[in-house]
Amino acid sequence: MKKITVILSIMIGLLAFTQADAQTNKDRDQYEVQVDGLGCPFCAYGLEKKFKEFKGIKDVAIDIETGDFSFSYPASKPLSMEKVVAQVVKAGYTPNDAKITRANGTIETNEKTDDVAMGDVTSAKVFVNGMCGMCKARIEKATTALAGVASATWDADTKMLSVSYDSKQTSEAAIEKAAAAVGHDTKGTVATDKAYDNLHACCKYERAN
Question: Is 124 helix (H, G, I), strand (E, B) or coil?
């Protein structure tokens, strides 16, 4: 009988802990940021240390390969998108896509809407050299920033950038130049040595002679 009482006490305690933990999660906002510039564990440590200036941060997770950074923060003292993005910059890195899922279910992103009307949309595949998830984020950010580019998706295995753009506003040549400007060689445009040297070690692809 005593053993049964002990077991029941343990089960009740675990149930209460689980419920309390679930309630805690409901009271926290979830943050996700894709960060460009994380090249090593030391970089990840520096980013996490900078964000720990926000007292109450928990559940920190950083994927160095992709640059995906996530954490939770008390909903009672919410962080704005502007503060999160600014903190990434203060840590010395470039924030790309960011998403906040508030405890009440609302979602915020830093995605910019393009109200410019698209004319004749052209689809093309462009070779862009690169290595990893960080390269993907960098290439896609640089090319989609061009006026007239509707979408751009880079594949690390094939090295091909699938792009849709308004041929009246931009061109394949301009898209290749945008990729080369951030350090990635294309068939038509070669990045400068300075731009290539600025890439992180994991992004250093083998260049053609």
Answer: strand
Token pair belonging to 160: 């091909």
Q: Please tell me the CATH code under which domain 121-203 is placed.
A: 3.30.70.100
Task: Parse the chain into domains and list their residue ranges.
Answer: 27-109, 121-203
Assigned CATH for 27-109: 3.30.70.100
For 143-191, the pLDDT digits (tens) are 988 889 989 999 999 999 999 999 999 999 999 999 999 999 999 999 9
Look at residues 145, 151, 149 and name the one whose alpha carbon lies nearest to residue 169.
Answer: 149
Tell me how many helices (H) and strands (E) the chain has.
Answer: 6, 8
> What letter would DSSP give residue 32?
E
Same fold, 27-109 and 121-203: yes
Q: Which two tokens stand for residue 80?
A: 């704005």
Q: From CA 152, how far away is CA 144, in angstroms rounded?
A: 6
Compute the distance between CA of residue 120 and CA of residue 176 in angstroms, rounded to an integer: 19
Element (H, E) at 17: helix 2-26
Kindly report the CA angle at 181 between 175 and 185, in degrees rounded to 5?
Answer: 75
CA distances from 101 to 72, 80, 167 (A): 9, 11, 37
Tens of pLDDT, residue by residue over 65-102, are 888 999 999 999 989 999 998 888 788 778 888 999 99
pTM of the model: 0.56
In angstroms, rounded to a whole number, what is the distance separating the alpha carbons of residues 38 and 21?
Answer: 31
